[in-house]
Amino acid sequence: MSVAGGVSKAIDRAVLHGCESLQIFTRNANQWTGKPLDADEVTRFRTRLDATGIAPVVSHASYLINLATTEPALRARSIATMVDELDRAHTVGLMGVVLHPGTCTAGTEDDGLRLIAAALRDIFKQQARRRTLVLLEHTAGQGRSLGHRFEHLAAILDALDGSPRLGVCLDTCHLIASGYDIASEAGYDDTFASFDRLVGLDRLRAFHANDSKRPCGSRVDRHEHIGCGALGLEPFRRILHDRRFADLPMLIETEKSARSGLAHLVVEDPLDRSNLDTLRALRDDR
Asked: Global pTM?
């Protein structure tokens, strides 16, 4: 949900749509410099969060962060920005920050994975007293982006000795785009058996629930409305009825309605309502 008008407005928007969990940005995702959080808004956010019982709540890290880069200035800026993301999440009381692992700018995939792990080690060292999680998001595999194979996530975890501050967020669009065929029953079973073997289901802390405009193995990240893409409804039904995932949040990142001039208002978005209602109907279909 948008934080336009103040971070606490995201809670109001979530309540309006009947949300049980929530993802926000605590800063502009396309800028390096983040506007300081307003103290009164932080208080309102935390008060509303407690009152509504919406949980868990996470933020998504800036799209500019690249912990796999070999360019010194970009690497330093990425680490500093991720520290700021975690500071903000801690301030407003979030479970964690969802992070795209990074994109190779030079060298091999293994080189890039080592750089990501080293950057996270540095970040955690700077925040030794914090417990806010970093949720590595499994990616679609566009270009030289890392994180589109479960082996990538496992390598980062192993390099950090299984740090308790690392979790994983699986995006259903990214799964099928990267070649994990969760649209079929057999493919679904194989995918999560592989994830459990390589990463561990205990590391899974959240789903991004998005259909995909592109087919299995396309390695193209294009979200579609629930049930309207290459996934269809069945994979979402399986996840919603899979006892292993009963306590995990499913966060939609589907396209919103065009709302010119209404960005700061707390008003219902028809597309959000439609996607959420579709998922609720699948969950309630016993």
From this structure: 0.97
Cα separation values, 271 from 42, 60, 207, 218, 254, Å: 28, 21, 19, 25, 8
Task: Strands of 124-165 (E only): list them.
Answer: 133-137, 145-146
Identify the structural domains of the chain with CATH numbers, from first to last.
Answer: 9-284 (3.20.20.150)
CA distances from 216 to 162, 207, 231, 233, 237 (A): 30, 18, 9, 15, 18
Residue found under tokens 């700077």: 126
Instruction: Please state, in angstroms and rounded to a whole number, the distance separating the CA atoms of residues 95 and 24.
Output: 12
Judged by DSSP in three states, 51 sits in: helix
For residue 110, give the DSSP letter. Answer: H
List all residues 6 or more positions away from 113 whose beta carbon is below 8 Å from its beta carbon: 68, 101, 146, 152, 155, 156, 159
Residue 116, token pair as written in the block: 């990501």
Give CA–CA dist 140/145, Å, rounded.
Answer: 8
Encode the chain (286 residues) as per-residue pLDDT tens digits: 999 999 999 999 999 999 999 999 999 999 999 999 999 999 999 999 999 999 999 999 999 999 999 999 999 999 999 999 999 999 999 999 999 999 999 999 999 999 999 999 999 999 999 999 999 999 999 999 999 999 999 999 999 999 999 999 999 999 999 999 999 999 999 999 999 999 999 999 999 999 999 999 999 999 999 999 999 999 999 999 999 999 999 999 999 998 766 778 999 999 999 999 999 999 999 7
